[in-house]
């Protein structure tokens, strides 16, 4: 087909003129092909850039805050989690008298659909709520063995805002309540892709391990050379109490039969120490009673002295001569020194005259 050219103001189509071929242009296709091959080879050797332009679709936002009465370690743990999770938001401390259902309204005001709430009781017990606001489910944990980033001083390090890998114990897939917790932890701790505050790198991993009916949280750095793991921190242990159908309440889906409240644990420890004190007092009373009892005198056994061998009697020596006095060498040296000193003083006086 011959290329045709159309006029702008309408009219008949005019055939476009073909460009004239010259001898110089005849060798261009070969050169272009060789250039394309070189470019392709260079592209193969190149390492693709870490950033790929995409759209931020997963709009997960997590609200991390606490109640009043927390200690310094809990505050530092909360700050560490906010630093590790760029998709988190902060809020002021909530009053203890307020009911937990108020948190759903706070999440709605902050435009957050997940929540991590730290609840302090008796200034020594810390509870953590993980909730999907406002429809649920939610889980309540007792937080134990808290170690923050500033406290651990580990050698590991990671880029602030980088996206983590999530590693779960195989036991999470065995029981249904652990599978529910796994999905809740994935939605809370995973940083959304293409989040504005996140970095397009994966250089650390969050591990969730089940041991002794508790969930152990650790944060490790992934070293590029040999893919070894170095701990960064923080670290803590979550002891599951209950899983609720709603957000911060509702019907109970699961209750941990192995859970022991901190008050019960302290009570058992006190009872053990009291039992030890009672045993010591009973032993002392028995010893006093034995001392007061009259001692039973046993009759002499004639066979008890059968194998006793009497010692040889040494002759008594009487000293008739007075022993010589002992020479005190230190006193003699002192006297000689004094004489020598007096002589020197006399000689010095004579020479002065």
Automatic annotation (TrEMBL):
Cell compartments where the protein resides: Nucleus, Nucleolus
Superkingdom, taxonomy of origin: Eukaryota
Gene3D superfamilies according to UniProt: Probable brix-domain ribosomal biogenesis protein (3.40.50.10480)
Protein name: Ribosome biogenesis protein BRX1 homolog
Family to which the UniProt record says this protein belongs: Belongs to the BRX1 family.
A molecular function (GO) term: rRNA binding
Keywords of the record: Nucleus, Ribosome biogenesis
Gene Ontology cellular component annotations, sorted alphabetically: chromosome; nucleolus
One GO biological process term: rRNA processing
Brix domain: residues covered: 60-249
InterPro entries: Brix, BRX1
Residue segments, region Disordered: 1-47
Pfam families: Brix
Record's function text: Required for biogenesis of the 60S ribosomal subunit.
Keyword Nucleus: yes
Organism field: Cricetulus griseus
Bias kind Basic and acidic residues: ranges: 34-47
Gene name per UniProt: Brix1
């Amino acid at each position: 087909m011959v290329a045709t050219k159309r006029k702008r103001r309408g009219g008949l189509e005019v055939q476009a003129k073909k460009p004239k071929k010259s001898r110089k242009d005849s060798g261009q296709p070969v050169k272009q092909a060789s250039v394309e091959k070189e470019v392709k080879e260079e592209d193969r050797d190149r390492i693709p850039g870490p950033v790929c332009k995409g759209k931020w679709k997963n709009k997960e936002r997590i609200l991390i805050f606490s109640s009043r009465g927390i200690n310094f370690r809990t505050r530092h743990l909360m700050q560490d989690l906010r630093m590790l999770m760029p998709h988190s938001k902060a809020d002021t401390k909530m009053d203890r008298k307020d009911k937990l259902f108020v948190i759903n309204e706070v999440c709605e005001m902050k435009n957050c659909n997940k929540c991590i709430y730290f609840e302090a009781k008796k200034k020594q017990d810390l509870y953590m709520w993980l909730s999907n606001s406002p429809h649920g489910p939610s889980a309540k944990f007792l937080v134990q063995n808290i170690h923050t980033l500033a406290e651990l001083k580990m050698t590991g390090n990671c880029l602030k805002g980088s996206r983590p890998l999530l590693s779960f114990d195989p036991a999470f897939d065995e029981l249904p309540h652990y599978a529910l917790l796994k999905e809740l932890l994935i939605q809370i701790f995973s940083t959304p892709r293409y989040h504005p505050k996140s970095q397009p790198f994966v250089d650390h991993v969050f591990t969730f391990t089940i041991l002794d009916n508790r969930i152990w949280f650790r944060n490790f750095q992934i070293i590029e050379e040999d893919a070894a793991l170095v701990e960064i921190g923080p670290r803590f242990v979550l002891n599951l109490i209950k899983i609720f159908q709603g957000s911060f309440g509702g019907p109970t889906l699961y209750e941990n039969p192995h859970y022991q409240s901190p008050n019960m644990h302290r009570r058992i420890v006190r009872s053990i120490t009291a039992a030890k004190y009672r045993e010591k007092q009973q032993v002392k009373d028995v010893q006093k009673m034995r001392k007061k009892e009259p001692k039973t005198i046993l009759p002499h056994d004639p066979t008890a002295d059968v194998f006793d061998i009497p010692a040889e009697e040494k002759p008594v020596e009487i000293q008739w001569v007075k022993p010589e006095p002992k020479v005190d060498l230190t006193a003699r040296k002192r006297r000689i020194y004094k004489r020598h000193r007096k002589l020197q003083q006399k000689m010095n006086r004579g020479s002065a005259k």
